[in-house]
Amino acid sequence: MESIIFNMVFIWALIGIILFFIEFLAPGFVIFFFGLGAITVSLLCYLFPDLTINTQLLVFIITSIAMLLILRGWFKNIFSGIFNQKDVMPKNIDTYIGKTAVVSEEIKPNHPGKIEFHGTEWEANSNVRIKKGESVVIIRQDNITFEVKKI
């Protein structure tokens, strides 16, 4: 009986480790939480050796989905880093002055548009009309809005 218990602990832990490895091969940050669910079941099998396979599967499904729904956004922000978040500027913003961008939504005087810069869309202002697709240079930055001019 003792070896069966430790086999289930080992099997669930192995499943969890395999799922963690698969997450590295096919990133999407979903499979990771099923790995956590398997590790949780492994721990429960160690603490409560009389768990049936049906209970183990139910705990695996519930904990995996619950952790996915509750923790995915939080973990994703931690692992992605600040530069992958939209509308977040790094502290050294002066480095963007003089850089070029492409207008993704027409900019009109007193009516902001959007530019694509470093793979992200940013709100942009100009004192002249600039059509979508035209290149611009960043001349000033105010919070998360750029002031641009035509090239």
Would you give an account of this structure?
Helices cover 46% and strands 21% of the residues. The protein has 3 helices and 5 strands, in the order αααβββββ. It has helices at 2-25, 31-47, 53-80, and strands at 100-105, 113-117, 120-125, 135-142, 145-150. The chain has a 5-stranded mixed β-barrel with strand order 1-2-3-5-4. The protein is rod-shaped, with a radius of gyration of 25 Å. The termini are far apart. The model has no long low-confidence stretch (mean pLDDT 85).
What key attributes describe this structure?
5 strands; five-stranded mixed beta barrel; 151 residues; 3 helices; alpha+beta; 2 domains; OB fold (Dihydrolipoamide Acetyltransferase, E2P)
What is this structure's SSE topology?
Elements: H1 2-25, H2 31-47, H3 53-80, E1 100-105, E2 113-117, E3 120-125, E4 135-142, E5 145-150
Parallel strand pairs: 3-5
Antiparallel strand pairs: 1-2, 1-4, 2-3, 4-5
Helix pairs in contact: 1-2, 2-3
Summarize the structure.
The chain has 151 residues and is α+β, with helices and mostly antiparallel strands.
Mean pLDDT: 85
Global Rg:
25 Å
Distance between the termini: 77 Å
The helix-and-strand class reads alpha+beta
Give the helix tally: 3
- How many domains? The number is 2
Report strand order across the widest sheet: 1-2-3-5-4
Strand content: 15-25%
The percentage helix is 40-55%
Shape: rod-shaped
